[in-house]
């Protein structure tokens, strides 16, 4: 196989002008392939071996080769792990990193980030090359538009078992310039302690902690009739379980039935289950804390964030299902 054809095969159909000439093609060979529509231009000096729509992987290769030496970064470095056909992601923009001393313009569909210690942070053996996973997670979380999105990035990375909170904290400590560093470190400390989602972290930092509620145990492993299950938060002394129900992970009938079985198992063990969702945590944390305090039989301190102390009352959003 001709060297340039091997490059094209290894790079999902994408090749740069620099690579093609290095592999033995002359400029007129490239011009002929473009004229015959065997190749099409993606970015200046970067080509694809067809004229149809590009896959995400081909767009990623094209962005990296256009900015070379470069590597996928931020959310694109994380996206590369998902493989082809990943649904539910915004793939319109490809993020690439280059060394901090370089200056390049941004072509359509590509966002370029200048990075210190660039060469040391790249996995050059990956296809395409990408920033190391922990570094990409930190960058993505630091640049997230909202706190919820940042928490989701950190929690999802740990939940997928691709890294640990401790390793992410090490990566964060290695970075000299990261926006909201202290806040990210605090979130990672909470993830390490057992908060495994945006909703769980919100419950800890908006409901339980600011109102000085008892500290619940996180991700408690239970065995019921030979089945293993994790309880989101358990107040053992009060025999109360809080399940943080974001519904995103409970979209099928079988999954909902499993939730009801868990609640029945808890009731059979003389424990009360409270199901909490996004509105109660992010929209009404003070009133939610007051009602949970009533269930726990303890005081609810005025919120350390806003100073409010809502009394329990009627709500169209009950705290248990």
Walk me through the structure.
- This protein is an alpha+beta fold and about 325 residues long.
- The chain has three domains: about 130 residues, no CATH class; about 60 residues, no CATH class; about 100 residues, Endonuclease, Chain A (3-Layer(aba) Sandwich).
- Helix 6 crosses helix 8, helix 7 packs across helix 9 and helix 10 crosses helix 13.
- The radius of gyration is 25 Å and the shape is elongated.
- It starts with a helix and ends in a 25-residue tail after the last helix.
Topology:
Elements lengths: L2 H8 L3 E3 H6 L4 H9 L4 E4 L2 E3 L7 H11 L4 E2 L1 H6 L14 E6 L10 E6 L6 E2 L6 E2 L1 H10 L4 H13 L5 H9 L7 H13 L4 H11 L8 E8 L2 E9 L4 E5 L8 H16 L3 E5 L1 H6 L1 H12 L25
Parallel strand pairs: 5-6, 11-12
Antiparallel strand pairs: 1-3, 2-3, 4-5, 7-8, 9-10, 10-11
Helix pairs in contact: 6-7, 6-8, 7-9, 8-9, 10-13
Instruction: Name the average pLDDT.
Output: 85
Q: Which class do the helix and strand fractions yield?
A: alpha+beta
Rg measurement, Å: 25 Å
- Residue runs with pLDDT of under 50 for 5 or more positions: 311-321
Beta-strand proportion:
15-25%
Overall 3D shape: elongated
Total number of beta strands = 12
Number of helices: 13
The description of the largest β-sheet is: 4 strands, mixed
Q: What topology, given as strand order, has the largest sheet?
A: 9-10-11-12
Number of domains: 3
């Amino acid at each position: 196989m001709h060297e340039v054809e091997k490059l094209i095969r290894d790079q999902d159909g994408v090749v740069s002008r620099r690579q093609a000439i290095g592999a033995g093609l002359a400029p007129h060979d490239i011009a002929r392939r473009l004229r015959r529509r065997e190749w099409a231009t993606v970015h200046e000096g970067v080509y694809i071996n067809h004229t149809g729509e590009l896959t995400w992987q081909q767009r990623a290769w094209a962005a990296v080769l256009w900015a070379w030496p470069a590597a996928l970064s931020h959310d694109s470095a994380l996206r590369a792990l998902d493989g082809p056909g990943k649904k539910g992601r915004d793939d319109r923009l490809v993020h690439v990193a280059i060394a901090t001393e370089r200056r390049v313009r941004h072509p359509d569909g590509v966002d370029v980030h200048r990075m210190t210690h660039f060469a040391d942070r790249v996995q050059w053996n990956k296809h395409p090359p990408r920033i190391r996973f922990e570094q990409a997670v930190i960058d993505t979380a630091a640049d997230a538009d909202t706190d919820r999105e940042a928490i989701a990035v950190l929690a999802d990375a740990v939940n997928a078992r691709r890294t640990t909170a401790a390793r992410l904290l090490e990566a964060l400590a290695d970075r000299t310039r990261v926006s909201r560093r202290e806040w990210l470190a605090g979130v990672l400390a909470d993830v390490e302690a057992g908060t495994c989602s945006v909703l769980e972290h919100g419950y800890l930092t908006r409901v339980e902690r600011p109102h000085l509620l008892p500290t619940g145990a996180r991700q408690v492993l239970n065995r019921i009739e030979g089945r293993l299950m994790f309880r989101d938060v358990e107040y053992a002394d009060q025999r109360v379980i809080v399940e943080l129900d974001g519904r995103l992970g409970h979209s099928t009938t079988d999954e909902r039935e499993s939730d009801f079985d868990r609640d029945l198992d808890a009731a059979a063990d003389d424990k009360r289950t409270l199901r909490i969702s996004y509105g109660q945590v992010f929209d009404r944390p003070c009133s939610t804390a007051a009602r949970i305090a009533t269930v726990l039989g303890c005081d609810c301190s005025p919120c350390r964030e806003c100073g409010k102390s809502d009394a329990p009352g009627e709500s169209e959003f009950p705290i248990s299902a």
